[in-house]
Amino acid sequence: MEVLSQGRAAVYEEPIGPAGVRIRERPRTDPKPGTVAVAIKAASINHLDLWLAHGAQRVTPPRVIAADGAGIVHASADPSWKAGDEVVIFPTLCCWECEWCRAGENVKCASFGVLGEHSDGTACELIHIDARNVFRKPKTLSWEEAAAFPLTFLTAWRMLTTRARLRAGETVLVVGAGAGVAVAAISIARHLGARVLATSRSEEKRKRALELGADAAFDSSAFSKGVRGATKDGVDVVFEHVGPATLDESLRSLAMGGRIVTCGSTSGVKAEITMPRLFFRQADLLGSTMGNASEFEAVLRAIDDGLRPVVDTVYPLDRVQDALTRVDNTEQFGKVVLSVSDA
Ligand SMILES: [Zn+2]
To answer: Does 121 share its domain with 8?
Structure first.
């Protein structure tokens, strides 16, 4: 079902970076059968929005940005929700009907996509979306926090649990701590009872990673030496999203039988691998993107058990360009949130 972003919205119009995303007014309509109209209270920025703004995603503008949103049901054309319900939005797009979707594997659907990339997104006053993309808002979270967790926690949860099979007592190395997905990974790994090591170029972010529960944090250059010194024989899991700039050091950090799991490559799309490091160490190199509805439900349960996202800063929707610039300059630790409506 088509996603419709309505009212005031942050619209990607030109591939010139944050300046190409502008506030526009979108017409308002009534929700079609099977969809829910959610009045967005808060949305949040992901690196994906920068790929879009810089013209790297082959998305034809105009497009309303952002995958993450939380708000109040304004009108519902589906029996599962009613006006006034407090909800968060599941950011994976899929058909819900094919064999993969019926098997619960939404990420493998031929119509797989990400909200705000393959459809209009959540940086708007009102979003009409398939009722199956709407979930209850965790009671323990503020609106800003509820908009901060969906994409990064869903992605990091699938990477660490379903893909890398992280167990309590194992050690995980999170590279590029500071990025939303990496901060989510630190919190989730701690929640699962794993020991966490982290890397960052920024001393401030290394400090923040330690405060969030990492045992040790290393500078991004040649971090494998420090990692191997802090472990018996390297780490069980490396959480990757940086790519070529860190992949070799990530491989060097792995223990025998370790797993590298990656959801991104912000430092470039092609990486070189020293093959013997992969096969002599019996290592697994695992790809992952987004997550399934069942994994989103698992994240919601973990939040009920105390897991929390980290909000870096909150900007009003009108200052979306400043919000995007902060992420573009990788100044953030955790999530940059857009406050959409106080009403
Ligand atoms: Zn499908």
So the answer is: yes
SS3 133: helix
Angle between helices 180-191 and 150-157 (to 10 degrees): 50
What is the whole-number distance in angstroms between the Cα of residue 292 and the centre of ligand 1? 11
The residue written with tokens 């699938």 in the block is: 158
- Using an 8 Å Cβ cutoff, are 330 and 312 in contact? no
Cα separation, 125 vs 105, whole angstroms: 30
> In this structure, which residues have their CB less than 5 angstroms from ion ligand 1?
94-95, 98, 101, 109
User: What spacing in Å lies between the alpha carbon of 8 and ligand 1's midpoint?
Assistant: 31
Q: Is-contact 198 217, C-beta < 8 A? A: yes
162 & 139 share domain: no
pTM of the model as a whole:
0.97
Rounded CA gap, 269 and 242, in Å? 10
* Measured distance CA(293)–CA(107) in Å, rounded: 9
- How many folded domains does the chain comprise? 2
143 with 8, same domain?
A: yes
pLDDT digits (tens, 9 = 90+) for 172-226: 999 999 899 999 999 999 999 999 999 999 999 999 999 999 999 999 999 999 9
Q: Kindly report, residue by residue over 148-162, the tens digit of the pLDDT.
A: 999 999 999 999 999
